[in-house]
User: Which sequence fits this backbone?
């Protein structure tokens, strides 16, 4: 069974240091563009190896890797992709266009991870965030990871076609058409319950 792309990247968070930035552009009909940008510390990639054996999960890096992940999913396609080495880090940027939010199920835990619901007076978008704390991490292990992973975050920006009326998480921009949710890797490890982002406009 294929893992969702977010789940794959978030699993990598727990075996090395990785920062993920996600940008979601929504249209009135539920279509849009999802852009992922993530950077991985080269030092942590080396620490995740024992001899010639990699102990961490393989990251999707090439355009072919992402197209393989999307192979069985309708309504979504890779529109741009790049990989760069910057300051001892691997930086990947990839964008996907989608015809409706159901196609984004690949990014979540299940087919109902995303909801786009229109009514007469408003539109509701909901996403169940695919992470929560892991009981296997002790205070000592989190403290150790914090020394390596300081400055690494999951940053999620959502752009809406109309002014946002309310949101369950994150900060709404001054023009009311953008929401930014930011959480550190360490806070993800400490989280006890899963959360959802709900936006109405």
Assistant:
């Amino acid at each position: 069974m294929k893992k969702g792309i977010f789940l794959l990247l978030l699993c990598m968070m727990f075996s090395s240091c990785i920062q993920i930035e996600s940008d979601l552009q929504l249209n009135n009909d539920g279509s849009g563009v999802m852009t992922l940008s993530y950077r991985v510390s080269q030092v942590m990639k080396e620490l995740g190896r024992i001899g010639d054996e990699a102990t961490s999960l393989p990251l999707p890096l090439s355009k072919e890797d992402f197209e393989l992940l999307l192979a069985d999913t309708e309504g979504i396609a890779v529109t741009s992709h790049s990989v760069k080495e910057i300051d001892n880090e691997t930086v990947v940027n990839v964008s996907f266009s989608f015809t409706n939010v159901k196609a984004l199920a690949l990014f979540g835990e299940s087919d109902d991870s995303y909801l786009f619901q229109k009514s007469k007076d408003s539109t509701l978008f909901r996403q169940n965030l695919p992470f929560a704390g892991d009981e296997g991490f002790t205070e000592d292990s989190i403290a150790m990871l914090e020394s390596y992973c300081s400055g690494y975050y999951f940053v999620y920006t959502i752009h809406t076609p109309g002014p946002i009326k309310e949101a369950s998480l994150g900060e709404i921009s001054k023009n009311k058409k953008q929401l930014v949710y930011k959480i550190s890797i360490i806070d993800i490890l400490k989280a006890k319950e899963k959360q959802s982002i709900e936006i109405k406009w």
